[in-house]
Write a structure and sequence with these properties.
alpha+beta, TIM Barrel, Jelly Rolls, 3 domains, eight-stranded parallel beta barrel, 10 helices, 31 strands, about 30% strand, globular, Glycoside_Hdrlase_35
């Protein structure tokens, strides 16, 4: 048993100064069978601690319907076995480029404040979660050194009572290790996000001395720590792949260490937002601008890449961190086994989207106005809205107001176009009498800024000319309805049509020498993929991500089942399972992502 405390200038372990050299690794973005390898990579990088968020919405997809909360405890046990301490950031909000910042969709309309109903739900969640953390604190023989209160709250709100209540819940739940907060190094952020008596830390990607100077204006005493040193960045669909020059990142790390501060590399290993859990952002200075959905890969241009391999950034950072290690660093573990042979999938079955919805969708509703995804209990997935344009009447424009995020439209069963938030009117007018279907997909909920928690679906109504269309039929399909090896057994498959029609494609891919792989979907437009019932995430021809990472433990020797849910236009060529690419450079990034 040990005691970890916060001193006037240093962190103290059993009374002796210690510097935290931590790295972010999200257990929920790495296949559990690969946790040990990735944690060993952090040790080889020169780190002594691992940090992870906890996504509430992953573990409680429906109120009271908890799912594998014990995964956090297993991860913390794996960290201890790897010789690492741990920092846990349980939120309830986490950002993390994760859908809705980790907040459950069913909390829509309840902001991150001391509002009673919201705190009641947080308290219930913490009562289930905290035992996984409390029993693994360092004063009980576990690895957990610190627990964070909320996350970057100063970038969102200023409800001091809310932070106090969260700290009270953590303490009442048995957290005895030090608490901390983390915020950007700006006065309004530190004022709104810090809490008296709780260690304040800062998040930044450069200019460490200025950032710590801002922190010292608010907290003259206490250890300095950068809780998020952004050594890379994430990608949005339809934009360029983002990288940070290794020399620049290493220079930023060295400056932090020269300040005598502790650090948490964000990310040390990013992993993958499997199963459609990637979030989104809003552009503009106040995050109220264009909608920017995040890609499936969370490689983050991190020192350990998406496939668990050391990059140039890894080796350069290792050289710096070795100076602070106090002992020779362990060598990196052997790389994961990789698939050696490229294989085409054989797609033998296809089901129309209507048939998939009928077999796996939720109940149909009829209402005057379109219900939101949240009202239909859809966290990730698609909703079919159907409405009748009465007639006879002349052709008028049809508009989906407040559309979030993307709709494929059919008029009397024929494709009529694709609508988005900023292009929400069909190019061709619609005459009545007509049946209009809109298959609306969520591309990820915003996870940062004032638009966090915004509803998905058709949120402003369907207009024909200036008249609202009422009597809207709606039915949702949650992505998790397709999780698991037997999930599609109720779907009526037939032979693929051969014209690229949207729908659920089913087939097999035969593997000799199973291991880590990439799945290429050349010519396919947008959708999701499952291998052996494991959701790999979203693909989209908009790029920059061109293929999906397939963890080796998902692939089995011999025949593997593959499902592809395509929303717009399937490719002429089948999906291809192939080896992971070589490690990329700034000028030539790897093919996947």
């Amino acid at each position: 048993m040990s005691e970890f405390t916060v001193g006037d200038t240093d962190f103290l372990l059993d009374g002796r100064p210690v510097r935290l050299l931590s790295g972010a690794l999200h257990y929920f973005r790495v296949h559990e069978e690969q946790w040990g390898h990735r944690l060993a990579m952090l040790r080889a990088l020169g780190l002594n601690c691992v940090e992870t968020y906890v996504p509430w919405n992953l573990h409680e997809p429906r109120p009271g319907g908890f799912r594998d909360v014990a995964a956090l405890g297993r991860f913390l046990d794996a960290a201890r076995a790897a010789g690492l301490w741990a920092i846990v950031r349980p939120g309830p909000y986490i950002c993390a480029e994760w859908d809705n910042g980790g907040l459950p969709h069913w909390l829509a309309g309840h902001p991150r404040t001391s509002e009673a109903r919201y705190l009641e739900q947080v308290g219930r969640w913490f009562a289930r979660l905290l035992p996984e953390i409390v029993s693994r604190q360092i004063d009980r023989g576990g690895p957990v050194l610190m627990v964070q209160v909320e996350n970057e709250y100063g970038s969102y709100g200023s409800d001091a009572r809310y932070l106090e209540r969260l700290a009270d819940l953590l303490r009442a739940g048995g957290v005895t290790v030090p608490l901390c907060t983390s915020d950007g190094p700006e006065d309004h952020m530190l004022t709104g996000g810090s809490l008296p008596g709780v260690l304040a830390t800062v998040n930044f990607g450069s200019h460490a001395r200025e950032a710590f100077g801002a922190l010292r204006r608010h907290r003259p005493a206490g250890p300095l720590m950068c809780m998020e040193f952004w050594c890379g960045w994430f990608d949005h669909w339809g934009e360029e792949h983002v990288v940070r020059d290794p020399a620049d990142a290493v220079g930023g790390l060295r400056e932090i260490l020269e300040c005598g501060a502790s650090v948490n590399l964000y990310m040390a290993h990013g992993g993958t937002s499997f199963a459609g859990w990637a979030g989104a952002n809003r552009g503009g200075e106040v995050q109220d601008g264009p909608f920017l959905p995040d890609v499936t890969s969370y490689d983050y241009d991190a020192p350990v890449d998406e496939y668990g391999r050391p990059t140039e950034k890894f080796w350069r950072m290792r050289e710096v961190l070795a100076e602070y290690a106090g002992a020779p660093l362990p060598e990196p573990p052997a790389p994961p086994t990789a698939l050696g042979v490229t294989t085409e999938a054989r797609l033998t079955g296809w089901a129309h989207l209507e048939d998939v919805l009928e077999a796996l969708g939720g109940p149909e509703t009829v209402s005057a106005v379109p219900p939101t995804f949240e009202e239909l209990d859809v966290d990730r997935g698609v909703v079919r809205y159907e409405v009748t344009v009465p007639g006879p009447r002349r052709p008028y424009p049809l508009t989906a107001r407040g559309l979030r995020d993307r709709a494929v439209v059919y008029v009397d069963g024929e494709p009529a176009g694709v609508l988005t938030e900023h292009d929400d009117r069909l190019k061709e007018p619609v005459a009545g009498h007509a049946r209009v279907e809109l298959w609306v997909e969520s591309l990820g909920r915003v996870g940062y800024g004032p638009r966090t928690g915004e509803a998905k679906g058709i949120t402003g109504g369907l207009l024909h000319e200036r008249q609202y269309l009422h009597g809207v039929r709606a039915r949702g399909l949650r992505l998790d309805a397709l999780d698991g090896v037997g999930a599609v057994s109720a779907v009526p498959f037939r032979e693929p049509p051969g014209d690229g029609s949207p729908g659920l494609y089913r087939g097999t891919v035969t593997v000799a020498g199973a291991g880590d792989a990439c799945l290429e979907l050349s010519g396919w437009t947008r959708g999701f993929v499952w291998i052996n019932g494991f959701g790999l995430g979203r693909y989209w021809s908009a790029g920059p991500q061109r293929s999906l990472y397939v963890p080796g433990p998902v692939v089995r020797e011999g025949t593997n089942e593959i499902w592809v849910l395509e929303f717009e236009q399937a490719g002429a060529a089948p999906p291809v399972l192939g080896p992971v690419p070589g490690i990329g450079t700034r000028e030539n990034p790897p093919a996947c992502p």
